[in-house]
Amino acid sequence: MGSVEEVRIARRxxxxxxxxxxxxxxxxxxxxxxxxxxxxxxxxxxGVIAQLQAQGIRTVDTLDDVDGGAAVVIRAHGVTPEVMARxxxxxxxxxxxxCTWVIQEQKELKQLVDEGYTIVLxxxxxxxxVVGLLGFAPDAIVVDExxxxxxxxxxxxxxxxxxxxxxxxxxxKLAAFLVGRAHELKVVNTVCPVTIRRQQDTMxxxxxxxxxxxVGGRNSANTRELTRxxxxxxxxxxxxxxxxxxxxxxxxxxARVVGVTxxxxxxxxxxxxxxxxxxxxxxxxxxxxxxxxxxxxxxxAVAEPAYRSTSLDDRGRPQRRTxxxxxx
Length: 328
Ligand code: SF4
Prior knowledge:
Elements: E1 6-9, H1 17-31, E2 36-39, H2 46-54, E3 58-60, E4 71-74, H3 81-89, E5 93-96, H4 100-114, E6 118-122, H5 128-134, E7 141-143, E8 155-162, H6 168-179, E9 182-187, H7 193-208, E10 211-215, H8 221-232, E11 237-240, E12 257-262, H9 268-282, H10 285-289, H11 291-300
Parallel strand pairs: 1-12, 2-3, 2-4, 4-5, 6-7, 6-8, 8-9, 10-11, 10-12
Helix pairs in contact: 7-8, 9-11
C-alpha cells in the first residue's frame, strides 16, 4: 500500500509568460479564421501541440512551407533578423510572439556588437533562442558547459551575455572566469527572472518534501536544471515528461510528502495530472479515494492567475501588446 499523504506543487510553475503569450497569439489568429502556422514548435510539449493542431494551427520547420498571405507566429525564443525580413518579403502576416525579455536581449546584444566587444554567449548551441541571437552577433563565441570555456581566447574588450534560461550560478561562474581573460569585461545579465524564481521555488520545495518529481521535456535544459537542484538539495528525484510515465509505485518508497515542479514549457494542467497520478499510484488508502480533489487542491494552492496556462481575458482574447517589428 502506498505511503504518499500529500503532493505539493511548486509555487511559480506552468508556462513562462513568453511561451504563454506566443501560444495565445496563435490561438487568437486561428480563432479569427486566419490560416495560422508557428515557425517551429511554439512549446516543447506534445499535448499542447496536439491541441493547437486540433484548432487548425500547423507547425512548420521553414517559411518555405507557408503560403503567401497566411499568418506565421514567431515563437517566444525569437528568430534572426534575416528570418523576420524573409517572412515579410514573402508577404506573410508576421505575428511576433518573441518574448519581451528576448527582444531586450537581442537589442543589448546588437549594442555590444556595435560597441566592438568580443562577445561570449552562454547558451546551448543550436537552441532556437541561441540561433536567433547569433543573427544579431554572428561572431559571438557560444559556450555551454565548463569544459568549453578554455577555448575562449584572451581579448582586450569582452562582453558576456546569456541565453534566458541558463542557470544563474553558471552565468556568475563564467563571469568570474572571464575576468582573467579580458582587460575590460562587460557583463550583461540576461538570465530571465522567471527562470531564477522557478529555480528558487523548486529548491525551497525540494528541501521541504521527501521526494521530488520534475515534469518537462527530456531535452529541456531548464527542466534538467531543476532536477539537478533537487539533487543538490539531497532529495530523491525523478524527471518525467508526463503522468503516463509514472507506473511504478516503488519509485516513491516510503515518501509521505512529494513535491512536483515543471519546466517553462510544462503547463500547470500537466502538473495537476501528475499530482493525481502520484495519489492514485502511491497514495495512502485515504489519499487514493480523493485523488482528483487532492490534486486539484494542490494546484489551486499555488496557481495564481498570473501563472495560468493562458493570458486570454474573460472574453477569450489575449491582452495584446503592440507587435514588435523585425529588425531591419
Ligand atoms: S524563459 Fe523568460 S525569457 Fe525565455 S521565453 Fe520564458 S519568459 Fe521569455
